[in-house]
Design goal:
The record marks 11, 17 as: Transition state stabilizer. Its EC number is 2.7.7.60. Strands 6, 7, 10, 11 and 12 form a 5-stranded mixed sheet that branches. A 3-stranded parallel sheet has the order 1-4-5, covered by helices on one side. A two-stranded antiparallel ribbon has the order 2-3. It has helices at 27-34, 65-75, 93-106, 147-160, 167-173, 195-205, and strands at 2-4, 21-22, 25-26, 41-45, 56-60, 80-83, 108-114, 119-123, 126-131, 137-139, 143-146, 179-182. It has 6 helices and 12 strands. The protein starts with a strand and ends with a helix. It has a single domain, classed as Spore Coat Polysaccharide Biosynthesis Protein SpsA, Chain A, CATH 3.90.550.10. Helix 2 crosses helix 4. The structure holds cytidine-5'-triphosphate (CTP) and the ligand C[C@](O)(CO)[C@H](O)COP(=O)(O)O.
């Protein structure tokens, strides 16, 4: 499992999210617990930080999420790798299993959820044309890939100067399809301060696998 955890948490405004506490433990601890079963756990931390945790390798992250994942990927050894955001603590085992199975079968897979609201274009602050929300999905993590495929995708992106917000886009840019599997709305990404209220509430009822 590759865990890009080197972000600065700018939109949240509480410092790097790896050390953000939810339900009395850090997001890093949530993620490591969710992947306690994984053969390899590689974590990118903000530059200047280092940690010691049995069975976990920590590496300095990059300027962007993509760079952090690339750094981890170069050290990964598994045939299939899962890439997960540290900012998504509520990962049900069933989601990780669905992604893993689909990645083994199709080479690349990502969990998605439906768009719950009306979706429109913002045209200079005015209500623009609606988008057919049934055709769209919100993309989550973990995303799963054959390691060689993801490495090729990252290398090509670096050569061509392609920057993307997730790994699936890089694989897609290679021309390789990415299978979609059912995600979980509880696996939302803690991004803005109000997300913390939801996260604290969820942490109170979350059952550890
Ligand atoms: N240079 C970076 C930037 C982001 N990430 C990781 O990528 C994931 C998704 O990023 P996001 O939730 O947007 O976190 P931040 O980058 O920390 O948030 P912000 O954009 O508000 O600073 C997070 O697990 C984050 O730690 C990373 O490893 N290295
Ligand atoms: C990878 C990701 O979680 C997929 O939804 C997301 O793109 C990362 O967040 P960011 O805000 O784009 O860094």
């Amino acid at each position: 499992m590759l865990l890009p955890a080197a972000g600065s948490g700018e939109r949240l405004g509480r410092g790097p999210k790896a050390w953000l506490e939810v339900g009395g433990r850090t997001l890093l601890d949530w993620a490591l617990a969710a992947f306690a079963w994984a053969d390899e756990r590689l974590v990118a931390l903000p530059a200047g930080y280092s940690l010691d945790h049995p069975g976990v390798r920590f590496l300095p992250g990059g300027r962007t999420r993509q760079e952090s994942v690339y750094t981890l990927l170069l050290e990964a050894r598994g045939e299939v790798v899962l890439v997960h955001d540290v900012a998504r603590p509520f990962l049900a085992p069933a989601v990780a299993q669905r992604v893993l199975q689909a990645a083994h079968r199709h080479g690349a897979a990502a969990p998605v959820v439906l768009v719950p609201d009306t979706l429109i274009q913002d045209v200079d602050g005015f209500y623009g044309p609606p988008a057919p929300r049934e055709a769209y999905r919100l993309v989550q993590t973990p995303q799963g890939f054959g390691r060689e495929l993801l490495l090729e995708a990252h290398r090509k992106a670096r050569q061509e100067g392609l920057e993307a917000t997730d790994d699936a886009q890089l694989v897609l840019a290679l021309g390789h399809p990415v299978a979609l599997v059912e995600g979980d709305r509880r696996a939302f990404k803690i991004t803005y301060p109000e997300d913390l209220l939801l996260a604290e509430g969820l942490a109170r009822v979350w059952q550890e696998p």
